[in-house]
Each structure stands twice: as C-alpha cells, then as structure tokens.
Specification:
There is one protein chain. By secondary structure, this protein is an alpha/beta fold. The protein has 13 helices and 12 strands. The strands form 3 sheets. A 7-stranded mixed sheet has the order 2-8-7-6-5-3-4, sandwiched between helices. Strand 6, helix 8 and strand 7 form a beta-alpha-beta unit. Helix 2 runs antiparallel to helix 10, helix 3 packs parallel to helix 10 and helix 12 packs across helix 13. The N and C termini lie far apart (50 Å). 48% of the residues are buried. Bound molecules: pyridoxal-5'-phosphate (PLP). The site of pyridoxal-5'-phosphate has 14 residues, from helix 4.
Length: 365
C-alpha cells in the first residue's frame, strides 16, 4: 500500500448539490434559464476540430475579459472553473507551517485546497451571516499566507461593503494574499458593492476570482478566471496546467460575456424571483438572510437534511447547509417563476411534515 499523505487521507470529499432524476434542481446556484444561447452557438463551431489541443494561453477569452474589465491581459488568468484558480493560488503560496483564514460558514473549497497543501486552517466566525473583517484582521499573523473572502458569501448571500473591504486591504500585511471570491458578483445590486477592478490596481496582494458557472449559465463547461497584478498572475501561471480550459469552453465563455440579452434576462429573472421568494418566506414566517446573490439562506428551525428529503419529495432539490456548519438552514437557488412557486409549495409542506428540532442550535432568530 502506497502511503497517502495524512492530510489527503483525512480530506472529506466535495459534497455537490444533488441532481435527482425528474426533480427540479435548485441546489447549485445554476442559471435557471439554461446556458447563454450565443455561448452554445460559439462552442458548436469547434466540435469539428477537437483533435487539436486548445489554445493553452486562452488568448481570445483573455482578450475578451481584458476588454470587458478594462484590465491589461497579463492581469488575467483562466481556470478550469474558478475552483482551479483557488487551487493554483494554494499551490503557489501554501505549504506546511503556513496558515490560512476562512469563515466558519462558507464555500468548502478554500478549506480543501488549503488542506491539500498542508496549511493550518484558522476559522473566523461570521456574525449572523455577515463578515466581520475586524475579527479577520485580528486573526492575521506572521504565518498567515492567504485570507479567503467570499462576497457575496456562499451560502449566506451577504456582501462585504466597499469601505470595509478597502480599509481591511489597507491593513493586511503585504506578505499575506487576500483571495476575494466573487463568483456571484454580477448579481449584486447594492450600491455598497466594492469595485474589485479598482482594488487590484491598488493592492498587489489581492487576487479576485470570477466564474462563468453562475450568471452565464456555463457550469458544465468549467470556465473561471482570476485577476490581479501581473507579478501575482505570473506566479500563478507557473502552476497552471498547460491546457486547462478546453476549446469549446474558451469560445463559449468569450461569447457569453457579450450576450447582453441573455445577461439582462438572467438578472431580471433573478431580481424578480428573489424578491418574490423573500416575500413568500415572510409569509411563511421564516427567517432568512437578505441576499445579494442568486440564492437565499433560510433558517428552518428543523433538521436541514430532513428538510432536504421532504422538499425533494415535493419535487425540488435544494441544499441542506449541514456541511456548511448550519444544520438547521437550507439554501435555495432562485429559479424561474414556475420553479419558485413549486419550491415554496414544497417548502410549506415540508414545514408541516418535518418536526421542529429543539436540540439543534438555530443560526437565525
Ligand atoms: C459556484 C462557486 C464557485 C464557482 O466554481 P467554478 O469552479 O467556477 O464552477 C466559486 N466560488 C463559490 C463561492 C461558488 O459558490
């Protein structure tokens, strides 16, 4: 038996949102309208030349992103999903003896990539679902190599305010990398949203990650990216697998970026659906966090996994937040009007059939 490094042997596997045959899936924050049609059209053009390796530098996609974000091309790096950008950051900066800071209730990949490279994990609690960057800053020490921030945060849907983030970045030591995961940035309508494109110009230790998996509807193609100053991007380029984004994905992503009709429609569906769902949650008397993303974090006061089952029996899969450390909370992706009606119906029924769990701590009042 080949000895597995202990930190790998103990690594819990990623728990993905479940797809159950015949059920509507509102479990993984995917775009309910499907993929961008222009992206699919663009991807099709490449199917006849799949014997060729992709462009390793993803030149066309990089040029499109540079134009879109008004950043020079060497400030960008593509990933096989933004997950891979997180992995590249960990591979570049983490080793035994290093520490990372993550929130207690957030996306699991920060923990996973940090553990793969043997870093010590320091957890800083959110305050009722909101970031406390003073507490994060207080936890930064000489060993802290990466701070992982997520805004809007998965699964709470809350953002870090512009001034709060700026003040935080001005106080983080320059030898600590701040990774700002903005997988849901495009959905934010709060005027307090930080301008991360400006922030990377000012802070050499900031890496921002984005994805085509959510708003653009291309989760299956696996395309994400990061932006930061060229020295930082250059360091990440050293660990990037040479052909990490497939040809069809590169082409689809570049086309999706300019598919304004689809983007407008997707944002409208989300804005209206989110407001409708929040009103229905009020009607049901459920506590939830006001969301800036395409999902809502809901306190059910019941065992989240039992709620998952009951709602799935009603025809919709959602996400139990037990693995996020919130055993009574669920996360529902905002769907189409029809999907939203169905999930509310299934949720209302589940509240009747699943008993209140007094032994489990509630997260929201
Ligand atoms: C969905 C999600 C991602 C996106 O991952 P991809 O690898 O780009 O599909 C990244 N971060 C968070 C917080 C997410 O929820």
């Amino acid at each position: 038996m080949i000895p597995i490094r202990p930190n790998i042997a103990n690594l819990p596997p990623y728990l993905a949102g479940k797809k159950e045959p015949g059920k509507i899936k509102l479990a993984s924050n995917e775009n309910p309208l499907g993929p961008s049609p222009r992206a699919i059209e663009a991807a099709r053009l490449h199917l006849d030349s799949m014997q060729l390796y992709p462009d390793g530098a993803a030149a066309q996609l990089t040029a499109s992103l540079a134009r879109h974000h008004q950043l020079p091309e060497n400030w960008l790096i593509g990933g096989n999903g933004s997950d891979e950008v997180l992995m590249m950051a960990a591979a570049t900066f983490l080793g035994p003896g290093d520490a990372v800071i993550i929130a207690d209730h957030t996306f699991s990949e920060y923990r996973t990539v940090s553990r793969i490279f043997s870093a010590e994990i320091v957890e800083v609690p959110l305050e009722s679902g909101y970031w406390n960057l003073e507490a994060v800053l207080a936890a930064v020490g000489p060993k802290t190599r990466i701070v992982f921030l997520c805004s809007p945060n998965n699964p709470t849907g809350t953002i870090i305010g512009a001034n709060t983030l700026d003040l935080f970045l001005s106080r983080v030591p320059p030898q600590t990398l701040v990774v700002l995961d903005e997988a849901y940035a495009e959905f934010v309508d709060s005027p307090d949203q930080p301008d991360s494109r400006q922030l990377v110009r000012r802070y050499a230790n900031l890496l921002v990650t984005r994805t085509f998996s959510k708003l653009y509807g291309l989760a299956g193609f696996r395309v994400g990216y990061g932006f930061a100053q060229p020295e930082l991007i250059g360091a990440l380029q050293r660990v990037r697998p040479p052909f990490n984004i497939n040809t069809a994905g590169q082409s689809a992503a570049a086309a999706a970026l300019d598919d304004n009709d689809f983007i407008r429609k997707s944002l409208k569906t989300n804005r209206e659906g989110r407001a409708w769902l929040e009103a229905e949650l009020h009607r049901l008397g459920l506590a939830f966090l006001p969301s800036q993303a395409n999902f809502i974090c809901i306190e059910t006061g019941r065992d989240a996994q039992a709620m998952y089952r009951a709602i799935a029996n009603g025809g919709v899969t959602i996400r139990a937040l037990t693995s996020f450390g919130l055993p009574t909370c669920i996360r529902i992706t905002v769907g189409t009007e029809t999907q939203n009606r169905l999930v509310v119906q299934a949720l209302a029924q589940a509240l009747e059939s699943v008993p209140v769990a007094d032994q489990l701590p509630r997260y929201l009042a």
